[in-house]
Design goal:
This protein has 275 residues and is α+β, with helices and mostly antiparallel strands. The protein folds into two domains: 89 residues, Phosphorylase Kinase, domain 1; 178 residues, Aminoglycoside phosphotransferase (APH), C-terminal lobe (Aminoglycoside 3'-phosphotransferase, Chain: A, domain 2, Alpha-Beta Complex), CATH 3.90.1200. The protein has eleven helices and eleven strands. The strands form three sheets. Strands 1-2-3-5-4 form a five-stranded antiparallel β-sheet, sandwiched between helices. A three-stranded antiparallel β-sheet has the order 6-9-10, covered by helices on one side. A hairpin with a 2-residue loop joins strand 9 and strand 10. The protein is globular. The relative contact order is 0.13. GO terms for molecular function: ATP binding; protein kinase activity. InterPro entries: Aminoglycoside_PTrfase (IPR002575), Kinase-like_dom_sf (IPR011009), Prot_kinase_dom (IPR000719). This is Phosphotransferase family enzyme.
Length: 275
């Protein structure tokens, strides 16, 4: 996949004669992530294809929720956007990905990440009586798609979800993929990238990826994170429902895009949730 004609025209207008430094695109979904150089400054351009639905979330986050971070240099600054063309331009954010570095297993990283997330969550809170019902229906719909969850287990999961209560929820701005692959470290400072899953959700949902990965491997990281966050937002029953939905949806999405390691993580998450 490349830029559409409209996206290329817009980029040429915003950054005439810009040089491509690096293609950071993930490859599993139809979003291009391009590092560009123009007049001695670096930028990141994100371009979505016709099927993309992540960029609209990213744009919404930049417009509404990122000020607590951008005001401190902790998230990329918004420069230009064209919603119809699915094109976003931000300033380049320095640092290296935390994932795969010693910082991924350093408690100080998680203390800081917890503090950053608390600032993000504290911006607003809205009640939603239908959130749990919507999420249950979405998960049930996903179970109707192609996947590799065993048929008897899938039926058990459907029956359990159908019997869940649907209490009111409090929704806050959430990142949606809060984990070290979306954090940068720069001389000990943690910064945040990738807002393609940002949305209003319960605060505890932003702990789901960490709980399935780094917290599972080293409980000290969870302790440090909660210290930075200031509290534990997880209520046991709601957290269980969220973990199982996350596990099922991980399995099915990863199977759809061909991310086998992530799919296997989803299967493990299901097994651990129901054990």
């Amino acid at each position: 996949m490349g830029l559409t004609d409209r996206q290329q025209v817009l980029l040429d207008t915003w950054l005439p004669s810009a040089e491509l430094v690096k293609d950071h695109s993930w490859g599993l979904i139809g979003t291009l992530v391009l590092e560009l150089m123009h007049d001695g400054e670096r930028y990141i351009a994100k371009a979505g294809d016709a099927a993309d639905h992540h960029l609209a979330r990213e744009i919404r986050a930049h417009r509404n929720w990122l000020t607590p971070w951008t005001s401190r240099g902790r998230a990329p600054e918004f420069v230009h956007v064209d919603d119809e063309a699915k094109l976003l331009l931000t300033r380049f954010l320095p640092g290296e990905l935390v994932q795969g570095t010693p910082a991924e297993w350093a408690p100080a990283t998680y203390d800081e990440a917890g503090g950053l997330l608390a600032q993000f969550h504290q911006q607003s809170a809205v009640p939603d009586d239908a959130y749990e019902s919507r999420e249950n229906q979405r998960t049930l719909a996903n179970l109707g798609k192609q996947h590799r969850i065993a048929p008897e287990l899938a039926e058990r999961l459907r029956a359990e979800i159908a019997g869940w209560p649907t209490p009111p929820a409090i929704l806050v701005p959430t990142h949606g993929d809060w984990q070290p692959r979306n954090w940068l470290t720069d001389n000990g400072t943690i910064r945040v990238i990738d807002f393609g899953r940002a949305d209003l959700r319960p605060a505890y949902t932003d702990l789901a990826r960490l709980a399935a990965q780094q917290f599972r491997s080293n409980p000290e990281l969870e302790t440090a994170f909660l210290s930075g966050y200031g509290s534990d937002p997880r209520e046991p029953d709601a957290w269980y429902r969220a973990q199982l939905r996350e596990a099922i949806n991980t399995c099915i999405w990863a199977y759809e895009v061909g991310d086998e390691p992530f799919e296997q993580q989803g299967h493990r998450m299901i097994a651990e949730a129901i054990s």
